[in-house]
Amino acid sequence: MTDQKPAIAYTLRRSSRARRLRLTVYCTGSVVLTAPSSLGLRHMEDFILQKTAWIIAKLDFFKKHPQPLPVKASKKEFAALKPQAFSLAKRKVDHWNRFYGFEYNRINIKNQTTRWGSCSKKGNLNFNYKIVKLGERLVDYLVVHELCHLKEFNHSEKFWALVAKTIPEYKACRKELKNHGRI
């Protein structure tokens, strides 16, 4: 009897920005391997083979616990709430940036299905329009989180120490935001 692992179908994405292999299993059942452009195919295949048990466990989990697919809000709802979201984000950025004093380019409000916020390399702070539906504490955490990316563009210990200066309970906020449900 051979100890042969099952073949795993996956999509390969090469990226000049990737520094290491990254494997993602989505609730839809798709498996994506992101790899540095210079990495050889054999190394990637070995990586997939090493992770076969993990991939199968994730796929089984998603089969047993189907996730509702994220849905973008209607253009009407987005248009109606975007000004309110911008006003809230601007007010909170101004408030928290009095402490941090970071330079940023602009604030954008977006209709995203998977993110509450992001910070671009150009210094743009992006927020999901649905922040208007969050409580004050989570909005504060979200704004501080994105502001701190202006100084630390990662999730290192330095980054979290920066967040903790104004949001000492950031771990609880982060967990609550993750468990908030569908965006």
How is this structure best summarized?
The protein has helices spanning 41-50, 52-64, 75-100, 136-148, 157-164, 170-178, and strands at residues 11-15, 22-25, 31-36, 107-110, 117-119, 125-128.
Overall description:
This protein is α/β, with parallel strands linked by helices and 183 residues long. It has two domains: 11-64, no CATH class; 75-178, Zincin-like, CATH 3.30.2010. It is 43% helix and 14% strand. The chain is built from six helices and six strands; from the N terminus they run E-E-E-H-H-H-E-E-E-H-H-H. The chain has helices at 41-50, 52-64, 75-100, 136-148, 157-164, 170-178; strands at 11-15, 22-25, 31-36, 107-110, 117-119, 125-128. The strands form two sheets. A three-stranded mixed beta sheet has the order 1-3-2. It has a three-stranded mixed beta sheet with strand order 4-6-5, covered by helices on one side. Helix 4 (136-148) packs across helix 5 and helix 4 (136-148) crosses helix 6. The protein is globular, with a radius of gyration of 20 Å.
Residue share in β-strands: 5-15%
How many distinct folded domains? 2
Radius of gyration: 20 Å
- Label the overall shape: globular
Q: Which strands sit side by side, in order, in the main sheet? A: 1-3-2
Tell me the CATH topology of the largest domain: Zincin-like
Counting H and I runs of at least 4 residues, what is the number of helices? 6
Look at the helices and sheets and give the structural class. Answer: alpha/beta
Report the sheet with the most strands, covering strand number, pairing sense and barrel closure.
3 strands, mixed
Helical residue percent band: 40-55%
Look at the structure and name the CATH superfamily of the largest domain: Metalloproteases ("zincins"), catalytic domain
CATH architectural grouping of the largest domain: 2-Layer Sandwich
Mean pLDDT: 90
**Pattern of helices and strands:** EEEHHHEEEHHH
Low-confidence stretches: none
The number of strands is 6
- The CATH class of the largest domain is Alpha Beta
- Straight-line distance between termini: 48 Å
